[in-house]
């Protein structure tokens, strides 16, 4: 009997466990000052855990009207993960599936398939959301995890501040300042799947003031299996980078300059049908690129701070089917004004332009080539104090125009009520959009062919063709939440939502187009004939059982129902509502065994993905850490226990148990 297919965690059991032990991220000792109205793009795109910049004001997290989780550096370290994508499994409400050695699907509140095109991802304020296929290439987000200060995750729409594609959430990865990474760091890991990961970092100070760091990293992960056979999807990456920060001067200025360069190969293969049978098709892809970001902030006065941020990023993907070289330039201005006790304003404007050159194949063609795309936007937001220390209302909107669609308005109205110093009730109504990808507007993709059924009938080639009228997908979201520090040792965070999706993308079968005397083209065209309702509840809690033991956990319930217009010919779209799991549960334990030893374990449960034929599954991770001195850490761990080698997504590779040993040395 397949225990995972037959077993379903009972609701009563889940709720009982959550009442005893699980996480409220906002209650951590280091997370007690958070501000959604920070000036920098880095600050605006997430939640500041501590007051570290003159470009923001202190704000108690208890009055923040959004579903927020802050994943700390300590949580990442003790989880034993080796990538940002795997670290996001720790976030309540987040659904993460590993497709193969180097590819993940990541997203909250449904639609976690393909590139998860309804979640905006940023690294230090730099958008890494790719417009070609709409989503994130996680294989190139391979930074040194020790350099991450925190990962801020907002579940729910963030379009009013963050703009398009933040429909279901925002993931903002924030790295440490250079002054927090002084000295030397070296790590080395070997494992049964991660064959090696080595990284080195050096930090120092400039003679005239300011701090710097440089780093280098190399990693190689082994191929996974598909159907019991090695899938040849090995993952190799090399990267290096720097960061420099200059503290506030007499004029109230602070500066940051940082950059990264990377190169690697993500391997893979498929089969192509020919009259001689299936032949292997090498899909190995070289990936590379670099980015440089600069940020200047000036504190004009206690009530007035301005900031300018700009970055340039180049990405390269040499894929045998469809390659792309992309150059992106982005610049943003923002200002924070807090002149009285009633209003706190933040506003700004942004311009982004990107140019792509494509390497087309006989299966994938994008036109025009090259393609230049631009985005212009501005936003304004006002946080109003209605009743001092008790009731707050936030109103704001983003106004955005891109090369594919007209102006999109993404407003929000949010309120927070704090009846006591340890309780908060919040609610929000927001609109957000997802803009068309380049493939949806410019792509020709050959799919498959069928011979004529009767003598003399033409052969039919089915292909995806551009949707010239494909427009923005839209969401209206209604949210409500509650937070409570029940006791000094126990806290709980609950969020519920009701999402109304409209103009969702579908693939409509158009009229046949003659190719020649013996064949016709049956086109699939991208149109906006889908709609849906998403609703759910996300519960997280934390229990500090003793000075040496902490338990954290969460439970997520999700219900997604999709539909199409009466005249739609997309018969597969409604089945997407069975792709997300209905139930997600995780439980974590951090135990200090002694001054030198620590023990961590994690338990995950995900219910079935019925639309993909994926059974419900458990997963367990165990880590033991040894600290012989303050500068040395040796960790031993096992990952993916209980998983029994099943895939997490349709067509995905098999998840196998793996072991590792990792050494971290500071000097």
Attribute tags:
single chain; 667 residues; mainly beta; 22-stranded antiparallel β-barrel; five-stranded mixed sheet; 37 strands; globular; disordered N terminus
Protein described:
This protein is mostly beta strands and 667 residues long. Helix content is 6%, strand content 57%. The chain is built from seven helices and 37 strands. The strands form five sheets. It has a 22-stranded antiparallel barrel. The relative contact order is 0.14.
Short structural description:
This protein has 667 residues and is mainly beta. The protein is built from seven helices and 37 strands.
- Assembly category: single chain
Beta-strand percentage range: over 45%
Report the uncertain regions: 1-58
In DSSP terms, counting alpha (H) and pi (I) runs of 4 or more, how many helices? 7
Mean pLDDT: 85
The secondary-structure class comes to mainly beta
State Rg.
25 Å
Broad shape? globular
What is the rounded distance between the termini?
53 Å
Can you summarize the main beta sheet? 22 strands, antiparallel, barrel
The counted number of beta strands is 37
Percentage of helical residues?
under 10%
Break the fold down into its secondary structure elements and pairings:
Layout (H helix, E strand, L loop, with lengths): L2 H4 L4 H10 L20 H4 L22 E6 H7 L4 H4 L6 E5 L5 E5 L10 E5 L2 E2 L20 E8 L3 H4 L6 E7 L7 E9 L2 E12 L5 E11 L3 E2 L2 E2 L4 E12 L6 E14 L2 E6 L2 E6 L2 E17 L2 E15 L4 E15 L5 E17 L4 E3 L4 E17 L3 E12 L5 E13 L2 E12 L3 H5 E8 L8 E7 L7 E12 L5 E20 L3 E4 L2 E28 L2 E16 L18 E10 L4 E10 L10 E13 L2 E10 L16 E9 L1
Parallel strand pairs: 4-7, 27-31
Antiparallel strand pairs: 1-6, 2-3, 4-5, 6-7, 8-9, 8-37, 9-10, 10-13, 11-12, 13-14, 14-17, 15-16, 17-18, 18-19, 19-20, 20-22, 21-26, 22-23, 23-24, 24-25, 25-28, 26-27, 28-29, 29-31, 30-31, 31-32, 32-33, 33-34, 34-35, 35-36, 36-37
């Amino acid at each position: 009997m397949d225990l995972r297919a037959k077993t379903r965690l009972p609701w009563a059991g889940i709720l009982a466990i959550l009442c005893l032990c699980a996480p409220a991220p906002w209650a951590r000792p280091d997370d007690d000052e958070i501000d959604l109205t920070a000036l920098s793009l880095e600050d605006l795109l997430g939640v500041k855990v501590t007051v570290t910049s003159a470009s923001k004001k202190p704000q108690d997290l208890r009055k923040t009207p959004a579903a927020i989780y802050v994943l700390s550096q300590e949580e990442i370290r003790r989880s034993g993960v080796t990538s940002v994508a795997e670290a996001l499994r720790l976030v309540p409400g987040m659904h993460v599936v590993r497709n193969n050695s180097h590819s993940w699907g990541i997203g909250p509140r449904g639609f976690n398939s393909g590139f998860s095109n309804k979640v905006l991802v940023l690294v230090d304020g730099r958008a890494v959301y790719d417009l070609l296929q709409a989503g994130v290439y996680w294989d190139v987000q391979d930074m040194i995890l020790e350099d991450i200060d925190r990962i801020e995750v907002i579940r729910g729409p963030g379009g009013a501040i963050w703009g398009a594609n933040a429909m279901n959430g925002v993931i903002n990865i924030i790295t440490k300042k250079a002054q927090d990474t002084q000295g030397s760091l070296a790590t080395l890991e070997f494992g049964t799947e991660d064959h090696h990961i080595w990284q080195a970092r050096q930090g120092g100070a400039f003679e005239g003031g300011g701090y710097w760091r440089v780093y280098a990293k190399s990693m190689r992960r082994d191929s996974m299996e598909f159907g019991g056979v090695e899938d040849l999807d090995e993952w190799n990456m090399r990267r290096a980078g720097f960061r420099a920060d200059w503290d506030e001067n007499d004029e109230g200025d602070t500066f940051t300059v940082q950059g990264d360069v990377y190169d690697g190969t993500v391997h893979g293969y498929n089969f192509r049908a020919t009259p001689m049978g299936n032949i292997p098709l090498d899909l190995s892809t070289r990936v590379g690129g670099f980015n440089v970001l600069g940020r200047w902030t000036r504190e004009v006065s206690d009530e007035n701070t301005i900031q300018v941020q700009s970055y340039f990023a180049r990405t390269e993907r040499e894929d045998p089917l469809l390659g792309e070289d992309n150059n992106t330039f982005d610049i943003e201005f923002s200002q924070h004004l807090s002149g009285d006790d009633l209003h706190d304003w933040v506003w700004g404007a942004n311009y982004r332009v990107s140019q792509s050159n494509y390497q087309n194949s006989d299966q994938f063609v994008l036109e025009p080539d090259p393609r230049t795309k631009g985005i212009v936007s501005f936003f304004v937001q006002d946080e109003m104090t209605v009743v001092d220390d008790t009731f707050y209302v936030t109103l704001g909107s983003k106004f955005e125009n891109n090369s594919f669609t007209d102006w999109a308005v993404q407003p929000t109205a949010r309120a927070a009520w704090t009846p006591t110093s340890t309780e908060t009730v919040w609610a929000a109504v927001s609109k957000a959009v997802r803009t068309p990808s380049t493939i949806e507007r410019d792509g020709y993709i050959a799919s498959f062919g069928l011979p004529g059924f009767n003598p003399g009938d033409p052969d039919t080639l089915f292909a995806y063709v551009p949707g010239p009228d494909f427009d923005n997908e839209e969401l209206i979201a209604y949210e409500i939440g509650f937070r409570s520090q029940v006791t000094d040792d126990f806290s709980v965070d609950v969020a519920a939502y009701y999402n109304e999706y409209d103009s969702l993308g579908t693939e409509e079968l158009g009229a046949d187009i003659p190719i020649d005397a013996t064949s016709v083209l049956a086109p699939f065209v991208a149109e906006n004939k889908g709609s849906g309702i998403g609703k759910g509840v996300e519960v997280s809690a934390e229990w500090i059982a003793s000075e040496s033991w902490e338990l954290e956990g969460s439970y997520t319930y999700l219900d997604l129902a999709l539909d199409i217009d009466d005249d739609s010919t997309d018969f597969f779209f409604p089945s997407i509502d069975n792709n997300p799991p209905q139930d997600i549960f995780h439980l974590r334990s951090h135990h200090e065994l002694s001054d030198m030893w620590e023990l961590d374990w994690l338990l995950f449960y995900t219910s079935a993905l019925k639309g993909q034929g994926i059974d419900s599954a458990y997963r367990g991770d165990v880590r033991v850490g040894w600290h012989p001195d303050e500068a040395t850490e040796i960790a031993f761990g096992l990952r993916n226990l209980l998983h029994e080698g099943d895939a997490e997504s349709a067509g995905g590779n098999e998840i196998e148990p793996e072991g590792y040993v990792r050494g971290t040395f500071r000097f």
